[in-house]
Target: protein-glutamate methylesterase
Amino acid sequence: MSDIISVLVVDDSAYNRQTFKNILKKEEGIEVVGVASNGMDAMGKVLRLRPDLITLDFEMPEMDGMTFLRWLMSEAPTRVLMVSSHSDSATVFKALELGAMDFVVKPTSRASLELKNIERDLIEKVRGVREMNMEVLSKNLKKIEKKSRRKAKRAKIKTDISVLAIGSSTGGPSALQMILTEIPSDIPCAIVISQHMPRGFTAPLASRLDTLCSIKVKEAQSSESVLPGTAYICPGGNHMSFSRYGEDIKINLIESKEDDKYTPSVDEMMSSAANTFPVK
Model:
């Protein structure tokens, strides 16, 4: 792969196509090699242009994004960033199962501040997705498919660890599924997770993982106690830290600011966990 990231933008909205093209073409090292208005159009351009990465909308005429994604991963595996509205959370996670590496929130014609946040997210994920190995991803997706809904059954775990803290970003939802489905319900420590994800998506992610795992998985709530055998996912748009009250450790959720580079902050969660949870 060359130093230039070649991108194909696939979206039936002319506004979205132009918005993504304008954002990406400003960035050094990124080249938009083509645009397509539906899945049929995209199929020909994928085979002709061989892009490093595709931004892909769900809802399109003639061939929708999900149908195109199935074809793509079978015939010409390529890194994909799905483009989603906040109401598409269930579809997002299905797309991630099929091989999409991450998603970005669909732009609207509203305020420039929202567009700036989308711009930052898009650039970060385009660069992050480039580093992901398609061969490794394909193998991991096959593992996920084989053990989907198979809950871990292991011998009783003995450990001195009081908390397992996980930070994840691009490719994180699939990685979290692989990790959490291997953890048995009797694990004697809590699990806390900061996954870079917008508001509105962490609750469906937690709910979906909860159906697949032996442990309980939930979106964290402010002031709730942290308990063993439970995984707490920081809500999108917040940072998570912890406070200790005797033997009880509670979750603190802090609203993110517009200029925060990463939300949730993995560093903030890790630092707080290290300072709060007991050393056994």
